[in-house]
Amino acid sequence: MKGAEALLRALEREGVEVIFGHPGGAIMPTYDALYDSPIRHILVRHEQGGVHAATAYARASGRVGVVMATSGPGALNLVTGLADAMMDSTPVVAITGNVPRALIGTDAFQEADVTGVTMPITKHNYLVQDVNEIPRVVKEAFHIAATGRPGPVLIDIPKDVQLAEFTGSFDVRLDLPGYKPTLKGHPKQIERALDALEKAERPVLMVGGGAQHAHAELLAFAEKTGLPVITTLMGLGAFPGNHPLWLGMPGMHGTVAANRAIHHADVILAIGLRFDDRVTGKVSRFAPHAHTIIHVDIDPAEIGKLVRTHIPIVGDSRLVLKELLKGAKALRLAAWWRELEEWRTRYPLRYKPRPHLQSQEVIRAFHEATGGHAIVTTGVGQHQMFAAQFFPVTRPRSFLTSGGLGTMGVGLPFAIGAKIARPEELVIDFDGDGSFQMTLQELATVVKYKLDVKIVILNNGYLGMVRQWQDLFHAKRYSEVYLADSNPDFARLAEAYGIKGVRVERKEDLMKGVEAVLNADGPVVAEFKVYHEEGVFPMIPAGGAAEDMILEPPEEKEEVGA
Amino acid sequence: MRHVISVLVQDHPRVLNRITGLFARRGFNLESLAVGTTHQPGLSRICLVVSGDDRTLEQVEKQLNRLIEVLKVTDHTEPHVERELCLVKVHVAGLEERLAVKDIQEAFRARVVDVAQKSLILELTGDTQKVNSFIEALRPYGILEVMRTGAVAMSRGDRVLKVREKKEAV
């Protein structure tokens, strides 16, 4: 058996069913072995599409996503996607070919120092030097990717190692003496946390992406205690977006209720989140009244990194929530809830209706038509925030977006990965005209595998979020954000791929357009021409605090402090 | 504040890269770094001198611990022995200077390890402060070259930096 075959055997033993990838010279022995393997391969048109699809596959399924690429340019095209998976703690294993061992370091054809380049953007990486190490390396890679704080692991395998005769064993043990994630929270700290919550007058529960797998425990704990729940962008769906205890998303484009709740909270229980600057705004002004911050995270390095923490709990959010639940009591929060209710009803997410078609109403129309029952993916920008605001998902693993890295172009490959992970689900990619064009070559992948994904492009003809910042902070100097003069006709572009194209330009055609997308048998690319001067509000400017919240566009402004 | 940190690592290729890369990426201030193998096959020990406030140092320790190949990290806040080795090549023009340098050498308990017509190489072992003073003392005579190893450290007493019995991870 050759190394390549051993690699696939090892992947099979890890339960891998799907690999996203693109072949090339240095990975050809493995692609040759793949020809006889039961593992399904999804051929993407660019390696970046492959790594994003693997990321979404992982996020939608809870399993490890796998991507494969050749050496040099192929592997380097994974860089953005690996960094994205790293920032959003997603378990991905990337397998890359490399030039034969004897050529490493000689600037050989398609050679790049891939383990060097990806060192800071992977949880760990390997350069396999010995064919008999393949089973152990694969086993370790999957273990590291999926356990503790999940993340991407890259395995770089020189071509001659793939071709070498394998004489080793698959019965291998992990050799990771320096890797022992703490899973169980410290009982004393859990007790302290419960005590602090019990004494609190204005407590809030904030959850992030690290609680997606703990949704059942989270729901039980929140309902038992009656705590108001706030979910970050990555936490959307970990708690039902239609639950009366839910206050929405915090941060830059979060709800007034969520941001005010944090601002006035005396005790904050934060679970599986890392206090990103988009959530906190200026850290020194974050949650100024909180005398106790309880931070539950599986990564000890996140605790105390940005926000002072009074009760640190290192552990798996699910196990910690289970323990918290055991001691949880119904809290007396009637007065607090009266305030929260007032903010929530007085400042719901809203937008000023205009004669022109608007992004928010398009997303809302899809939400109503589907009952919110879909997996949503997005690109990055205004449309992403609108989707987070106006498509409140109710189930975990159903809002797939690039949170930490803010990677434009993930929408389509995320939709592909999600559809392959959960083919029975309706998958909608809310995309921007800018974001979509960064990875649109993956329409070919949609066609090749007949993937029924609905791509909804909210075309405002601009890089809308940049334009919004220029509007607010750069005296309307719209530097290099205009796309409409050179955008393609998206519906016709889709048709060129053999995909149904839909175009909606007028407000009165909105429902017809939504129906055309949802009733279509198979994939659709739908272009909704939306109002270009729309801004995402509320907004806390970068480096600001809850008190600096802008509720409406400046010309019609109503600024509302905390 | 200056901190001396010892790190036990698996001596895999690039492990040093991972550590220096981490320091560069997170903006930690690295004053010196020394590395060598240990008596246990497969394990290397690294000594880092880092400056920063308590919060930074907490992050340094935690971020080092995140690295898969790092087995143990300790910040030497307890009584410990700290040494570095330094070679200084100093210019000596005539007999008078040679004698003066010899006085300094004796005062610091340094050794002469090379003698040439116009220069000497002196070897000194000591903590960083002693090495600094030694260099300052020689400076008036004309230092030609300095090579320092960076600090290495070890806790005093029976405390030992070691890995707990290798537990089999699941």
List keywords for this structure.
heterodimer; A: 562 residues; alpha/beta; Rossmann fold; 3 domains; six-stranded parallel β-sheet; 22 helices; 18 strands; 35% helix; B: 170 residues; Alpha-Beta Plaits; five-stranded antiparallel β-sheet; 4 helices; 29% helix; TPP_enz (chain A); thiamine pyrophosphate binding (chain A); Acetolactate_synth_lsu (chain A); Acetolactate synthase (chain A)
Layout of SSEs?
The complex is a heterodimer of chains A (562) and B (170).
Chain A: H1 3-13, E1 18-21, H2 28-34, E2 40-43, H3 47-61, E3 65-69, H4 73-76, H5 79-87, E4 92-98, H6 114-118, E5 124-127, H7 134-146, E6 152-158, H8 159-163, H9 187-199, E7 203-207, H10 215-225, E8 229-231, E9 246-248, H11 256-264, E10 267-271, H12 277-280, E11 292-297, E12 311-314, H13 317-327, H14 334-346, H15 359-370, E13 375-378, H16 382-390, E14 399-400, H17 411-421, E15 427-432, H18 433-436, H19 443-448, E16 453-459, H20 464-473, H21 490-496, E17 500-504, H22 510-519, E18 524-529
Parallel strand pairs in A: 1-2, 1-3, 3-4, 4-6, 5-6, 7-8, 7-10, 8-9, 10-11, 11-12, 13-14, 13-15, 15-16, 16-18, 17-18
Chain B: E1 2-10, H1 15-26, E2 29-37, E3 43-51, H2 54-66, E4 70-75, E5 80-91, H3 95-107, E6 111-115, E7 119-126, H4 128-138, E8 143-148, E9 152-155
Antiparallel strand pairs in B: 1-3, 1-4, 2-3, 5-7, 5-8, 5-9, 6-7
Can you put this structure into words, describing what you see?
Chain A has 562 residues and is α/β, with parallel strands linked by helices. Chain A has helices at residues 3-13, 28-34, 47-61, 73-76, 79-87, 114-118, 134-146, 159-163, 187-199, 215-225, 256-264, 277-280, 317-327, 334-346, 359-370, 382-390, 411-421, 433-436, 443-448, 464-473, 490-496, 510-519, and strands spanning 18-21, 40-43, 65-69, 92-98, 124-127, 152-158, 203-207, 229-231, 246-248, 267-271, 292-297, 311-314, 375-378, 399-400, 427-432, 453-459, 500-504, 524-529. Chain A has 3 domains: 3-163, Rossmann fold, CATH 3.40.50; 187-346, TPP-binding domain (Rossmann fold, 3-Layer(aba) Sandwich); 359-529, Rossmann fold (3-Layer(aba) Sandwich), CATH 3.40.50. Chain A contains 22 helices and 18 strands. In chain A, the strands form 3 sheets. In chain A, strands 2-1-3-4-6-5 form a 6-stranded parallel beta sheet, sandwiched between helices. Chain B has 170 residues and is of the alpha+beta class. Chain B folds into 2 domains: 1-76, 2-Layer Sandwich (Alpha-Beta Plaits), CATH 3.30.70; 80-150, Alpha-Beta Plaits. Chain B has 4 helices and 9 strands, in the order E-H-E-E-H-E-E-H-E-E-H-E-E. Chain B has helices at residues 15-26, 54-66, 95-107, 128-138, and strands spanning 2-10, 29-37, 43-51, 70-75, 80-91, 111-115, 119-126, 143-148, 152-155. In chain B, strand 2 (29-37) and strand 3 form a beta hairpin. The longest helix of chain B has 13 residues, at 54-66. The radius of gyration of chain B is 19 Å and the shape is elongated. The N and C termini of chain B lie far apart (40 Å). Mean pLDDT of chain B is 94; it is low at 166-170. Classes of the chains: A alpha/beta (562), B alpha+beta (170). Chain A binds chain B through residues 115-116, 119-120, 123-124, 127, 143-144, 173-174, 176-180, 299-301, 304-305, and chain B through 9-10, 13-14, 17-18, 21-22, 25, 55, 58-59, 62-63, 65-71, 163, 166-170.
